[in-house]
Amino acid sequence: MSSNRRSFLKNITLSTGALATSLNLEANENSFVSTHASFNMCGYAAPKLPTVRVGIVGLGMRGPGAVDRLSYIEGVEIKALCDKYADRVEKAQSILTKKGLPAAKSYSGEEGWKALCESNDIDLVYVTTPWHLHTPISVYAMKNGKHAASEVPAAKTIDECWELVETSEKTKKHMMMLENCCYDFFELLTLNMARNGLFGEIVHAEGAYIHDLTKDYLFNKNAYADMWRLKENMTRNGSLYPTHGLGPIAQCMNINRGDKFDYLVSMSSNDFTMGSMANELASKDDFFKPYANKSYRGNMNTTVIKTNHGKTLMVQHDVSTIRPYSRIHLVSGTKGAAQKWPGPEKIALGHGWMKPEEQKQLQEKYTLPIVKHIGEIAKNVGGHGGMDFIMDWRLIDCLRNGLPLDQDVYDAASWTSAGLLSEVSLKKRSSSVDMPDFTRGAWQSNKPHDLTLNGGGNTGVRSVSK
Ligand SMILES: NC(=O)c1ccc[n+]([C@@H]2O[C@H](COP(=O)([O-])OP(=O)(O)OC[C@H]3O[C@@H](n4cnc5c(N)ncnc54)[C@H](O)[C@@H]3O)[C@@H](O)[C@H]2O)c1
Description:
By secondary structure, the chain is α/β, with parallel strands linked by helices. The chain has a domain at 181-369 and 407-444: Dihydrodipicolinate Reductase, domain 2, CATH 3.30.360.10. It is built from 16 helices and 14 strands. The strands form two sheets. It has an eight-stranded mixed beta sheet with strand order 13-12-11-7-10-9-8-14, covered by helices on one side.
């Protein structure tokens, strides 16, 4: 943390006394403009790494998929696997050995990730753990000379967001939040259309994470390790998981690269499902007793962000009511609009949605080079219909060719901060909350990320049998 921010926090603590909670401190911290950046990581090209040696931490439901996907990419060596639980590491090793690839070094225990980060045979630490470990592991990785790629969201507090930014700038190591939804097919199409001005000036956009996780995941004893995600929903209130909806629309609106988030307001419904589910389960099974008679986060959170250029973004979060899956993905401008959910995917360049055949022609014209190059292979490898593999391939291709990454640490921090600050707004009866400028002014001159494959595109895909 910079010394200026430290002293600011000290002042707040003194003025509010012992009643100051960490969230209150963060709320006040937001209006504070941090010291100058020591280096601008936007557009930063790290030295080329012809072979990218990867260590993966967190081998629950998400991590083994990453092991599988990365093992297809030429120029990747999976050197280390780590989980708190040793049996999960051994299970993930079999993904490699079944494909005839060398076994990785195994790390386990609560702090096994520290030794992994310290080892000298890794270039990239890929983090797929519960949320509270994303920043500690990413920061430790960068301090130990590794690039960091972390699952979403990147951090649990605004101070952690700053720690990521400051560490990335100081170490000149990339910190990418693995926002895979930015690489979904329609999202990439609308990004290219937005860049080419088809929607005119984008005025408003909407995103969401609406996905009923209750029965199969949150309240399933065999899903999230140590029930971490249920605990998050039990101890916090707000938009806990904003970036799947927010990342793609923030890119369409050039956030941190021409515009930036200015302030937000947030409102949540009450909880109408999780508390009663917990009580009912606890009445039959003692395992659920610690989760009974607790107050859970409101089912539906709606957060609205205003940008410095006067545009609005709306993000919703609901993982606990029965409703078909949606990330909305609405982009609405002065000349046109696009919307992904509810399907079918739609584009309008006038008052009505386009006819499918017209839309197909537009799609062909605006399909990005990355999709033409790797889209079909990605669909075969899999991972949320292919977007996960497009993301991993692009990350590795950029590292191998010394190209800037599509998502930098400022994106990770600002997209994540929207969720963290929704919690602050809720505590103040939905009052507006200023959003920090993690770029410290550089957003005015930072350039949008490159949508070509120029300088790269030469990373092959192995034909390893599944
Ligand atoms: N981008 C996406 O589409 C997507 C999808 C699913 C999950 N996720 C994210 O992936 C992450 C993991 O989610 P998940 O569903 O796999 O959860 P999970 O609980 O199944 O897996 C987490 C793993 O981390 C391990 N872990 C816990 N503490 C650890 C420690 N100290 N050291 C090493 N390992 C530790 C656990 O044992 C577990 O195996 C979360 O951040 C989640 O938000 C992202």
